Amino acid sequence: MGKYLNNHQTFVISTKPPSIDIERVYPHKGTIIIEANDLFYRVDLNYTSFSSKIFGGLAIICGIWFLSHDGIDLYYDTFSVFVIFAGLFFLIYGFTVNKENKTLLLDRINGIISYPDMFYAPLLKGKFEDIKAVISVSGDVDGTVGREYLKFVNTFKPRKLDVLRTISYKDPYEEWSLYVWYMDKNRPLPPGTAFDEYRKQDFERRKREGFPKPLFESYIPTPEATKEQQAVRRKIGGW
């Protein structure tokens, strides 16, 4: 039997985030990162549709297999019918879910985050600074630490009964640092060639605004793209 611990995350760039290179972005070789520029960062979280198709298909096959065997009592017949209907639901869901509602969208300029709700519900949307992020740590009763996942609490539409939404299966500290860095519109864009063509215009925007101080704390340097830009920021913004 396992157990889960949820470590609430603060809005801090705690470690170097993964590099978002252009090869990882659609329509290049990437299929997960849909958009990455100075305005929006969008990630496809529609992995549930594929798993729903697999689960639904297997459930239908298992249910039919049980029903086709003689000598099974009424309890198992009823259970088999339930499994078949559940399988049909997940199979239909996998093919009909709106992919637009299964994305993570970071709006850098307006400070808005959108992420998937349950099943067919539209995206949950609100201020990034209000999101409650946790790193969920699974483990066994003997104290062995399992995997860590970045999850979001349903902050914008709370319910009495709800589940944490898994956002990333990658290194949760790096992913959260990436989101915090990207959503700090007063800092340069995060590392990665996908952002390179937007760095100049993002720099000019921040320059027009007088290089205001960062919105969130950082434990690592977040320098400008060039030493010249760094000097301009220091002269105008004082940091």
Key attributes of the depicted protein:
four-stranded antiparallel sheet, membrane, single chain, transmembrane helix, alpha+beta, five-stranded antiparallel sheet, 2 domains
Provide the spatial order of strands within the biggest beta sheet.
Answer: 3-4-5-6-7
Provide the β-strand percentage band. Answer: 15-25%
Helix fraction bin: 25-40%
pLDDT < 50 stretches: none
Question: C-alpha Rg, in Å?
Answer: 22 Å
Q: In angstroms, what separates the terminal alpha carbons? A: 51 Å
Query: How many discrete domains?
Result: 2
Q: What is the N-to-C succession of helices and strands?
A: EEEEHHEEEEEEHHEH
> What count of helical segments does DSSP give?
5
The biggest beta sheet reads: 5 strands, antiparallel
Number of strand segments: 11
Q: Average the pLDDT over all residues and give the rounded result.
A: 89
Structural class: alpha+beta
Categorize the overall geometry: elongated
| Oligomer status | single chain
Structure description:
This protein is an alpha+beta fold. It folds into 2 domains: 184 residues, no CATH class; 48 residues. It contains 5 helices and 11 strands. The strands form 3 sheets. Strands 3-4-5-6-7 form a 5-stranded antiparallel beta sheet, covered by helices on one side. Strands 1-8-9-10 form a 4-stranded antiparallel beta sheet, with helices on one face. A two-stranded parallel ribbon has the order 2-11. Strand 8 and strand 9 form a beta hairpin. It starts with a strand and ends with a helix. The model has no long low-confidence stretch (mean pLDDT 89).
